[in-house]
Write a structure and sequence with these properties.
Methane Monooxygenase Hydroxylase, Chain G, domain 1; mainly alpha; about 0% strand; 7 helices; single chain
């Protein structure tokens, strides 16, 4: 019975990794589209978001079957419960990546060279998402804690983007809609970072019974 349960948990891990990879793809594609102004590339993101949504439903079904058929207790119960919570945040990451892509598609916006900080911000959120999933699969408390702490890096990038945009607003030749669209995109990336923190906190819960990093 235990070997069967372990096999099902391993399948759950694999599906979570695949869902995480789709999240990374959605973020990265929207970021590339923003830097290049490639509307066609942005148009690929909604289909990735739909794949993420399907993965959420598939994994939710797996988790519910594990809970009903295997009736796990203690740490195993926390593991399956955490996975159910994590996929909700991962689905939101897909939606918010699609929201970024929609702004690009509608406006044709492209980040100029003075806005490369927004690309760095996107890279930082991808790192957070990747490592939060890796922490779950690898049962790595330290990695989950590092993801939570790394949110400060994303927040700093967000502050940097806001500072640049404030300077742009002070110039009479600035396109106000351009600046506002970039601010909205940066806010979506910041929210994606928050979802990665949520994922990491659920990893901690599954491993330790607590969602918080000591001292945070």
């Amino acid at each position: 019975m235990r070997s069967k349960f372990d096999e099902q948990l391993e399948n759950l891990n694999k599906e979570l990794v695949l869902m995480g990879a789709l999240c990374e793809k959605a973020i990265a594609t929207s970021a590339r589209a923003l830097l290049t102004g490639n509307v066609s590339l942005a148009g690929e993101v909604p289909s990735v978001s739909e794949e993420i949504d399907k993965k959420e439903r598939d994994i939710e079904s797996m988790c519910l079957k594990l809970l009903l058929r295997q009736q796990p207790v203690a740490r195993d119960l926390r593991t399956v419960s955490a996975a159910l919570k994590m996929i909700t945040d991962m689905e939101r990451i897909g939606v918010q990546s699609a929201d970024i892509a929609e702004i690009i598609t509608v406006t044709g916006i492209a980040a100029r060279e003075d806005m490369l900080a927004i690309h760095d911000m996107a890279e930082a959120t991808i790192k957070m998402v990747t490592e939060s999933i890796d922490a779950f699969v690898g049962k790595d408390v330290s990695m989950a804690e590092d993801v939570i702490k790394y949110d400060d890096v994303v927040d700093n990038y967000f502050d940097k983007v806001k500072t640049i945009l404030i300077e742009l607003f002070s110039k009479p030749e600035t396109d106000g809609e351009y600046a506002l669209d970039l601010l909205m995109i940066a806010k979506y990336f910041e929210r994606i970072g928050d979802h990665a923190v949520n994922i990491a906190e659920w990893v901690l819960f599954s491993l330790t019974g607590s969602r918080k990093v000591e001292g945070k």
